[in-house]
C-alpha cells in the first residue's frame, strides 16, 4: 500500500479561483470507490491505495483541467511507498501522536 500527495494546478484559466477544478478532480477520486481512500486538505489531496491504482487515478486527475479548457496544468506528486509494513494515513498519524505523548 502506498500513500500519495498530489496537487493539481490549472494555469492560464483567466481566474485565480480553482475550487471548481478541485471539485471535478475529486469526482474522479470518488469514481474509484473503495480502491482508493483520500483526504482533501487546503493545499493538496492525500490518496492511499495500491500504487498502480494511485498512479492511474493521478493521471486521470491531471487530465481534468485540460477537459475543462485549461491549456497548461502543473501537477506535483509525492509518493510514500513503504514495503516493510502496511502504511496507512491513520497509522502515520497515530505514530506521531504516540510520540507526542512521551
From TrEMBL:
SUPFAM superfamilies: MTH1187/YkoF-like. Residues 4-97 form the Thiamine-binding protein domain. Pfam families: Thiamine_BP. One of its GO terms (cellular component) is cytosol. It comes from the Bacteria. Belongs to the UPF0045 family. This is MTH1187 family thiamine-binding protein. It comes from Cohnella terricola.
